[in-house]
Amino acid sequence: MAVxxxxxxxxxxxxxxxxxxxxxxxxxxxxxxxxxxNFSLRTTRGDYILTLYEKRVDPAExxxxxxxxxxxxxxxxxxxxxxxxxxxQALRQLCGRHAAITTFLPGVWPRHVRLAHCGPVGExxxxxxxxxxxxxxxRRNALGPQGWSPLLERxxxxxxxxxxxxxxxxxxxxxxxxxxxxxxxxxxHIHADLFPDNVFFLDQxxxxxxxxxxxxxxxxxxxxxxxxxxxxxxxxxxxNVTKARAMGHAYAAVRELSAAExxxxxxxxxxxxxxxxxxxxxxxxxxxxxxxxxRKDPVEYIRRLRFHLAARDEHAYGL
Amino acid sequence: MAVxxxxxxxxxxxxxxxxxxxxxxxxxxxxxxxxxxNFSLRTTRGDYILTLYEKRVDPAExxxxxxxxxxxxxxxxxxxxxxxxxxxQALRQLCGRHAAITTFLPGVWPRHVRLAHCGPVGExxxxxxxxxxxxxxxRRNALGPQGWSPLLERxxxxxxxxxxxxxxxxxxxxxxxxxxxxxxxxxxHIHADLFPDNVFFLDQxxxxxxxxxxxxxxxxxxxxxxxxxxxxxxxxxxxNVTKARAMGHAYAAVRELSAAExxxxxxxxxxxxxxxxxxxxxxxxxxxxxxxxxRKDPVEYIRRLRFHLAARDEHAYGL
Lengths: 319, 319
Fold this sequence. Notes:
The structure is a homodimer.
Chain A: H1 9-17, E1 24-29, E2 37-43, E3 46-53, H2 62-73, E4 92-94, E5 97-103, H3 115-131, H4 145-162, H5 166-180, E6 187-190, E7 199-202, E8 205-209, E9 216-219, H6 220-231, H7 241-254, H8 259-263, H9 265-286, H10 299-309
Helix pairs in contact in A: 3-6, 3-7, 4-5, 4-9, 5-9, 6-9, 9-10
């Protein structure tokens, strides 16, 4: 749930004057997303999303994110298109925050993941990877493998309070993952956070992808590993290989997966699981009890990690 | 910020099958309102609000609220109109909660109250009072004068932790207010919670009133007293009599205020201030620190109360 910054009507009116998108009709905070403040904005011209970037986003990186979204949206992917102001700028200032308006995407994100969702997600992810190829600027993945050891170090003092033995388990797993991390797989722009709440469906069809603020330039197959973690475990944390097969096959039908990429799936999935386990653990330990942010349980991702550590090869993922 | 209940896509689809309002296009949680879960719902037919009633609302009272809204909306007031299902029912069940769909109102609530807002609010309040006259069922105001002493008793043990001497101050003030409380003023249906976030404006004009879930049958002029408290104090808690005059005159131009109603304004304003001071105090003391609800500072209303206790007569309010 996220509206961290209150936007006054005067400030909003002045802000909209810098755009050629018609007159204000409605403006409501959206109770979704955890990093930024999002508002549903309607004008006489149509529907938009206004995002105010809060402090966890580095302002220096915003042009890269907005540029990627614009590139993807104009290269066949359905994702929010940044709207330029009268001066040509998409990134502006509002209420002391960096802010941008993007187009509104219809659709509903799936609260319960069904098998029928997983193929379309794999296909859309592959299309994103292909469409991103023409976007020249790169962004280092701050939450990629180089970031995991520092994250673990900062969480170790509190880890065993979350679960006894957790610190040792994570340290051992991370050492193994980093030792085996693949070095020569194809790299490109990845979403890096394509969870169900970032994928809209309409009439059983995927209608758009949102929230590119973790996107980065990294191993493409790692993005598939993130999705296998996010979409293919059941609520009881059992792994649904049928969902994984549907996702992987749909991905590979659009962008072929090499033998090396397939073989690396277990360690890539381990990496994706430990990445979310570590950020959740860090937030769990460092979120004050009174904060307005719901903390997510890191243990869910530690259980996923254990599954992937036991996976022998790509067959564990139906590939 | 309020989405307490997660609605699955399957449950939503099944729920919408009971309505003749077209096919689902978009569905987002709204980060506004503190009592219920609200969602912005778009279908191929138009825009709606879906509300899930959470536990603070007594289900037995929901038909009264929805009936009042329907009566007001069909008698010239711009407020959400409950949408009936195919079976004629507006009140239904979704995800174990009572739920209703209402029409969407365009507009933006004013984050900064300006003088230009106050006349339209007074006028709309008077129109609400006149339009409500034909709605026969009544609802006792649970947060009216009879409710204030029990609320104070339950808050007294923690009151002095909020501010030393607060318990005694509130007890003395409440005794005085109840002793002077007017008995023979005109009664009708009141909104009882017409704060800025419940009033939408569009192009400088009032475009609608929302959130009738504190509405009740009580002294009409008390509703004006609530609005004087909610709209006419500046952020530094100084009282802006120009705003009050604009509001009161606009009200009286639509529904005449009798001499008795005008004379009672100081005590009615004291009552309105202590009502919000007491509920905020109660919530302040009883909200666990980890709760996802922002606690509102009761002291703001105690300072308003002190202003009203010093008011000699209606001239203090520009009337």
